[in-house]
Amino acid sequence: MTPNISAKEAFEFHSCLSLTLLTGRSARDLAELVEHLRVVPGAVIYHHTHHFLVQHQFLSPEPPNDFAYWATNSLLEEALGEQLAAINLMRFSAMRDLRNAIISVIQRHLDRATNLRAAPAGEEFHFKQSASFVVPTGLRAFDLRQFREALAHVSITSISFHTFDARLHLERGDSDFARWLDTSLGEHALADSIRNIDPYTFTLEGLRRRIITLIDERIAELG
Amino acid sequence: MVKLEEYAPVVGEGVVAELRLLGQHLIGKRVLNVNSTRVGGGVAEILARLVPLLCEVGLDARWEVISGTEEFFGLTKRLHNALHGKPEAFTAADIEIFNHTTEFNLKNLDLEADIRFIHDPQPAGLIRARHDTPGWIWRCHIDLSTPAPGAWEFIAPFVERYDLSVFSAPQFGRALPMPQIMIAPSIDPLSDKNRELSRNEIEEVLGRIGLHNDKPIVTQVSRFDRLKDPIGVIEAWKLARRYVDCQLILAGGSATDDPESVQVLHEIREQAADEPDIYVVDLPPTSNVEINAIQRASSVVIQKSLKEGFGLTVSEALWKAKPVIAGAVGGIPLQITHKYSGILTHTVEGTAFWIKMLLSEPSFAKRLGENGREHVRNNFLLTRHMRDYLLTFLYLSHRGESVIYL
Predict the structure, then answer these.
(1) Residues forming beta bridges with residue A26, ordered by sequence position
(2) Are B146 and B226 in the same domain?
(3) Does residue A220 belong to the interface with chain B, where contact is any CB pair within 8 Å?
(4) Is the confidence metric ipTM above 0.85 for this complex?
């Protein structure tokens, strides 16, 4: 195997650009939040657990999902906020399962707690969702070197799409990068190394750097 | 005219490439923007920059302004205040004034386009020309979270007929029959109001408008409008000044659709009459370099709004890496995370406390400003705004879909 061996099929880099839509739903307290969570479209759950990835590209002190942020800052439920922030998104490959996990954390808290606070006026939780526009960037790769070059130049929304949207939003269950390296290039070990990264613990630029480093190591190994 | 490629050093090559890519999917689309003023206020500023950039990526974009009598703009100012929550009564005569001006503009404006992008309540009535033509979007730039009784009802019959509506923050959305999109406004990092200025340029501009950099400057830049609470700013500054030596600049102006501003300016001057360290600067609407210089010369920038559409002056100041103290209203909390990228306050006393703190602890103040600048770079620059508008135009033919393959 050399880095110049051609893939069975090219990797097409796509960007994903999101438009935020208002749903008209809002919650004043945890009971209302759970009621809405049971029925909103999966795109709503995805938005509130993932939009921070693009909006806060630099490391920020904000918890990584909106439910956690609201519980902590508007309801002053710090323990619940911490539990919601700690939900391991890597465990899920279907939106249904993620939705159930969030509901179950909140429900457990509701069952135990007394004297729950409602959000002050003006700080209600507003449910939003994303319309995701998937756009081909025109960049494609047939081998490992081309893949590495393209990866270094695509916008971070492309990194985000092939990593997060592919796995959970579109429920493909795998990172597009890992799947292509695995099935089209036969780079099974490299694919597994990429699968083993928890992308939620990186900024998008950090994630790009990490994947490029893994590829560079493999290219050096191949000589 | 500024070209798209000039934004690449500020936002990155990838962002600019994406805009060109989206433009390819809208080549030749005729997009008509309509608002109520050519100069003054955030809406006009954004349109002046965005329309040429939309053309550059392949759209056929243009911008028209409605005309109206003093009576009409007096009514729309009252409507604006009432939509922000101030009680106002609207009569049949008011509806007549609104309809009369709408009728006049329907006869005099060329509304031929594929997409009509109508900004704010003043021109909302143009929807009467809809008939069977699709492609009508209403863009609301103001805070509709707590409208006074009768205000939303005044405008709703028009708004309900649009295909899409666009609001600046989630709490502004209303019960409406069409999809509602959230788009935060933006600032232009290359405009005269926001571009880098040398120290000499700043000194020269300050001197020209009679200001001095001889003691720390606390500034509020905004239209002379009661909802911006200029009197509250003066009170807060007076409380703080007992302990820290500083001057206050209230810089602003009036827009052609805002007749109330003259009265407010008069009240501010009365309050500031005996204070030699307060400078009230009434600037013409084109004073962009002047505002830029004042913001850059400031040690602390205030935006003590009581109600706010979005509060673009907050992003302007953050982009200059200034520590900002702002009212936690409207879109301001989207721009400032308290004690991380700025300070959010609710009272005159709180504002005074933080003026003292930030002037006394410049290293903390500096960190707030730097974090604020990065947050603006990622979320509130013109390129992000342009991307959202392009996506909105595309969404017109994909309503209800959550994943759209272009």
Answers:
(1) A126
(2) no
(3) no
(4) yes
